[in-house]
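Let us practice reading a record.
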Amino acid sequence: MPSVGAIVAAAGSGSRLGRGSKALVRLNGRTTLARVLELFLSLEEVDRIVVVGPPARLETAEQEVAALHPSKPVLVRPGGESRQESVRAGIAALGECDYVLVHDAARPLASPALVRRVLAAAIESGAAFPAISPRDAVKRVEGNRLVESLDRSRVVLAQTPQGFAYSLLARAHREAADAGLVGDDDAQLVAAAGHAVTVVQGDPANIKLTTPEDFAVVEALIKEQEAVSST
């Protein structure tokens, strides 16, 4: 069995959500961080976890970890000023392993099946991310003017977790830092380093908490799931 580590990117300020740190927002009584940690703790494939949390609230993040009584190592480290810096700190804290999964704490509805799908593709190809197809027409604009209509069959909406060979992800982050490259996600950095990245089927329910509207939708889905599981 290859060794697998997970980095939970949990340092975002949540300014657009308007509820403070997204990782520490409570959904139906439990934080997004606790829900994501439970997911990775439940997967026997994952050996250890690094939480890259909000520097001003590390103690709270550590309390969330301790409350779960984790059965595998979970480290909490301060994040950087950007997500990219936070993930780089997570790579360093995680230490050498064969593969690494990087997941945003702001996506508390990721499923074990999704994580395993990404990990299997990463083991096969070295790099993988999940994505879904856009449902609406996709346009490129400048200001308030239409510039181009894009072919939806050639566009996807990227999600996390994303999976990589550890050495590949570490190199991609080093090269990006040296070149001053800022990417939207880790898949972009790995592609920029010259490695092909596999796309696997994402999950429409794997919504990222970004706006107050997202909060209402995600909490409603969680309440529905937990009501079903308790019956």
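A brief commentary: The longest helix spans residues 212-229.
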